[in-house]
Specification:
single chain; alpha/beta; FAD/NAD(P)-binding domain; 2 domains; 7-stranded mixed β-sheet; 5-stranded parallel β-sheet; 9 helices; 21 strands; about 25% helix; about 25% strand
């Protein structure tokens, strides 16, 4: 058994950001991160990997380079949460006790919820920007396709970066037009959502883009099976309760997603399986010395790195306040950002809060497609991430 003042379960965007901010606030804090991965990934660029703008290798760096100085790195996975005894059991059976716990395990890709999907990823024309191993195939197949149906999907569950399924669709349209083969293809968007985007302010800007790009939308269509032998994507129409089959020559899959199983089975979860936290303070609703942020939390906002960047300072301030015997007063307003790539060199920057109200950063109309915003996503934001956010500076 080992003990630390603060234990952070997860060394992704959320876990590293919190650890860095804690050590910046008080270098004497005894902080430990539980994380088995040897590599850290900047996942927002996986769309650009799929679009051929960057390579997969440009999105990956050694995890060790970003564990903050003075933080203990427990290179194992979590086996069990035991909040009633203030402890976490790791894979090798060691029990790690804590004064405070931060849960930041990210989100789980549930490939098994689409019949045949995981096996289909090993067949020609089927790809996904949702894993490091498969994002490169998206660009490979986009370069090869000459004609036929391109099908892009969006599941019925919460997902990380809800804009990503449509971003690659816009890049695909742009790429095919540049190659002169767009007229020989049809682009289909099979989405379980009711519209192209959940926030009205940005939905109204995206709908004309979808029309301009001649994309065929199939809303309330949830992908339930992939049949690679016959090259068919099978959807369930959520309103009409019927099966819809779209033939494909190119298929971009977005898997259903959920809280990690280890969270679902723990006393920390809510009825839906997420870590149950108060949405403004990020403090657990039942265990006062437990906090959570990011994709595995119950926070009712988009699961994006930009949201984590706003959540981390609130969590740290409130945790340290409670540790010092004070009340948590910092509040997170639900801010999330989605840089919606609409083509090579164009982007709409969506920023909004819990209520879907725009929370925009720039003094111009962010619903207009701009190269400056595209350049920010591709060049500026990765630098902000690696050298600012993960260092607790931004």
């Amino acid at each position: 058994m080992t003990h630390h003042h603060i234990v952070i379960a997860g060394g992704g965007s959320a876990g590293i950001s919190v650890a860095a901010r804690l050590k910046n606030a008080d270098p004497t804090l005894d902080v430990a991160i539980i994380e088995p991965s040897k590599h850290h990934y900047y996942q927002p660029l996986w769309t650009m990997v799929g679009g051929g703008v960057v390579t997969p290798e440009q999105t990956r760096r050694p995890e060790a380079e970003y564990i903050p100085k003075g933080v203990a790195w427990i290179s194992e996975s979590v086996r069990e949460f035991k909040p009633d005894s203030n402890s976490v059991v790791i894979a090798d059976g060691t029990e790690v006790t804590y004064d405070f716990l931060v849960v930041a395990l990210g989100i789980q890709l549930d490939w098994g919820k689409i019949e045949g999907a995981e096996a289909a990823l090993n067949t020609p024309g089927v790809c996904s920007n949702y894993t490091y191993a498969t994002a490169g195939n998206t660009w490979k197949y986009l370069q090869e396709i000459q004609e036929g149906n391109l099908v892009f999907t969006f599941p019925s569950t919460p997902i990380k970066c809800a804009g990503a399924p449509q971003k690659i669709m816009y890049l695909a349209d742009d790429h095919l037009r540049r190659r002169g083969v767009r007229a020989k293809t049809k682009i289909h968007y099979g989405s379980a959502a009711a519209a192209i985007f959940g926030v009205k302010h940005y939905r109204e800007a995206l709908e004309p883009i979808v029309k301009r790009k001649e994309i065929l939308t199939h809303f309330r269509h949830d992908l339930v099976a992939v049949r690679p032998k016959s090259k068919e994507a099978v959807f369930h129409h959520l309103d009409e309760k019927r099966e819809v089959i779209l033939p494909y020559d190119f298929l971009h899959l977005v898997p259903p997603q959920s809280a990690p199983d280890i969270v679902k089975s723990s006393p920390l979860s809510d009825a839906a399986g997420w870590v149950s936290v108060e949405k403004y303070s990020l403090q657990h609703v039942r265990y006062s010395n437990v906090f959570s942020l990011g994709d595995n939390s119950s926070l009712p906002t988009s699961r994006t790195g930009a949201a984590i960047r706003k959540q981390a300072p609130v969590l740290v301030e409130n945790l340290l306040a409670i540790r010092g015997g004070n009340s948590p007063i910092a509040r997170y307003d639900g801010y999330a950002s989605c840089p919606l790539v609409t083509g090579y060199g164009s982007l709409i920057l969506a920023e909004f809060d819990y209520d879907g109200k725009p929370q925009e950063s720039f003094p111009f109309d962010q619903t207009v497609e701009r190269y400056s915003m595209y350049a920010m996503k591709v060049y500026a934001l990765p630098e902000l991430y690696w050298n600012g956010m993960l260092r607790g500076r931004a």
